[in-house]
Each structure stands twice: as structure tokens, then as C-alpha cells.
């Protein structure tokens, strides 16, 4: 059997964790899928899948092969697109990830623009406040905030944001504007675990680095909830500057202790290393780079 065909069948079964699921995805019969997997394992001389009556799982060798097969099949698709011509219209499926609020505020408008421009393309948007493994989760493009780890990914810097403290004018009028980070120990603190998993806030350059341990009165698991609590006048919270930009503009929130902020955090568009430039990925990246670099809230 054709090696790329065998890889395609294995990826489908490995991702679906089911021979029947892989067969449905590929429009093949289950016996044909079983024969393909058996032929692949015989060719390689290694067991790729652990089968029981209840599930199918990749073995350790199977996981390595699955990762490599995904990469190879992706490069084959991109090579086909490149051969078809650099001016070919973007088409096919694109998976994009970004932090929740950043995705909602800045990436989703770009996705809508992209889909309106390219009717043969479709997009899955994963807006999550965690670092997505792009290879394992099949992500084509990611927006990352903060320093990047060393990797084989390509990255394009598109802006920067600050981590800021804020509160409502009503709260600050009742309790006063804090002048040093140490004062926060006596204030009502709202902690958003999406931004600050540990309730120890780091401050910077005015008086040198300082870590302040705080006991929040309210801990929430979403940045939206922290914003609402701060807008209502409950207390002081710490968020990314872009997350509160609309509420700063309306005067619902005010930034405090700005002179103690740490260095801004870079924003990058990250995509998987590739020998070829996929039209669908290249076009989306170009569009998002232009949009994000032009946004005043990210510079």
C-alpha cells in the first residue's frame, strides 16, 4: 500500500482512538482500515496501537510516529499548495488559538475578515487561557503573550501589553489611591487565576524588584469575572492592559501603581516550522500581523 495512505489511516485511527472512528473520518470500511494498520505495523516491524475490546491507544513508539506522520502529511499538503501556485486562493481548514479575551477582542474580528475574503477556507478557533501544544492539538497558528520558550516554531512579534493594577473610581474614592505595592496588603484584592495562579504579585522598577504576597478576598477563574468585580467597586485586581482597555476608555476603571509595573510582555504570532508556505496559513498570518500591529492598544 502507498506509504502516505498508510500514514493517513494511522493518524485518523490514532486521533479518533478507534478503528471505526478512523474509518468514518476517511470514508473507508473498518476492515480496510484494519488491513492498512496491520500493513503499516508489518512494514515498520513495531506495534503502533494497543488494542482492547474497549479502546485503542497509541503505544510509545506509536505516539512518536503519530507526531511525525502529522508533520509529514501537513508538509505534503503544503507542498501541493505551493506547487499549485503562490497566488492560489487560500482554501481548506485552519485551526487558530489565542487567550480567551485576546481572541474575543482581537483575533475573532480578523477571523471574520479572513472568512469573508476567502470563501473556500474554514476556521476552528480555540480560545483558551492555557498554552496549547500546537503539534499535538493540530493547531496551525497561535497568538502567544509573554516570552517564548525555545522551539522549532516560527514567531513574528506584533505588539506588546502590560500587566496592570486597576480599580473603579468609586473604590479608590472610598479607600484612597495606593502609592506603594506594600499598601495592597490592607486593600481588597481580586485575584484572577487565569493571569496570576499564585497570589504573589511581582512589581518592578520604581524601587527595584519586589514580590508582595497577598490574601485575596475574591479569587476567580476567569478574567471577565475579575473585571466585573473590579467595575462593581469591590477592590483592586491585576490584568493585562488590553483586557481592561474598553473600561479605561469609559472611565469605569483606573490604573494604579503604574510606576511599579514590570516590563511589557511581547505578543507573537506563532506557527509551525515548515519547508513550504501554505497559502491558508500565510494569508491568515499576513492579515493578522497587519491588524495587530496597527492596533493602538497593543503598542
UniProtKB/TrEMBL annotation:
Keyword Protein transport attributed: no
CDD domains per record: PBP2_CrgA_like_2
Keyword DNA-binding: yes
PROSITE patterns (alphabetical): HTH_LYSR
Domain of life, source organism: Bacteria
Keywords annotated in UniProt: DNA-binding, Transcription, Transcription regulation
One Pfam family here: HTH_1
Residue span, HTH lysR-type domain: 1-59
Family to which this protein belongs: Belongs to the LysR transcriptional regulatory family.
Protein's name according to its UniProt entry: LysR family transcriptional regulator
Amino acid at each position: 500500500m502507498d506509504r502516505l495512505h498508510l500514514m493517513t489511516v494511522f493518524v485518523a485511527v490514532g486521533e479518533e482512538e478507534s478503528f471505526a472512528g478512523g474509518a468514518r473520518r476517511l470514508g473507508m470500511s473498518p476492515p480496510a482500515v484494519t488491513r492498512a494498520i496491520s500493513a503499516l505495523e508489518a512494514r515498520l516491524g513495531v506495534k503502533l496501537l494497543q488494542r482492547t475490546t474497549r479502546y485503542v491507544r497509541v503505544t510509545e513508539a506509536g505516539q512518536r510516529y503519530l507526531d511525525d506522520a502529522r508533520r509529514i502529511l501537513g508538509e505534503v499538503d503544503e507542498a501541493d499548495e505551493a506547487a499549485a501556485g503562490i497566488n492560489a486562493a487560500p482554501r481548506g481548514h485552519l485551526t487558530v488559538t489565542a487567550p480567551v479575551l485576546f481572541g474575543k477582542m482581537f483575533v475573532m474580528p480578523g477571523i471574520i475578515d479572513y472568512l469573508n475574503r476567502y470563501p473556500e477556507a474554514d476556521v476552528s478557533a480555540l480560545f483558551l487561557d492555557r498554552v496549547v501544544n500546537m503539534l499535538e492539538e493540530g493547531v496551525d497558528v497561535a497568538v502567544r503573550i509573554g516570552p517564548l520558550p525555545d522551539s522549532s516554531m516560527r514567531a513574528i512579534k506584533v505588539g506588546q501589553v502590560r500587566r496592570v493594577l486597576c480599580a473603579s473610581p468609586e473604590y479608590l474614592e472610598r479607600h484612597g489611591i495606593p502609592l506603594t505595592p506594600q499598601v495592597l496588603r490592607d486593600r481588597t484584592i481580586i485575584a484572577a487565576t487565569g493571569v496570576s495562579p499564585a497570589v504573589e504579585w511581582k512589581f518592578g522598577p520604581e524601587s527595584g524588584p519586589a514580590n508582595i504576597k497577598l490574601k485575596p478576598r475574591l479569587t476567580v477563574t476567569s478574567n471577565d469575572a475579575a473585571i466585573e468585580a473590579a467595575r462593581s467597586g469591590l477592590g483592586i485586581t491585576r490584568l493585562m492592559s488590553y483586557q481592561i482597555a474598553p473600561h479605561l476608555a469609559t472611565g469605569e476603571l483606573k490604573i494604579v501603581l503604574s510606576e511599579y509595573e514590570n516590563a511589557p510582555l511581547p505578543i507573537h504570532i506563532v506557527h509551525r516550522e515548515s519547508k513550504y508556505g501554505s497559502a491558508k496559513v500565510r494569508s491568515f498570518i499576513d492579515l493578522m500581523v497587519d491588524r495587530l500591529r496597527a492596533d493602538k492598544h497593543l503598542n
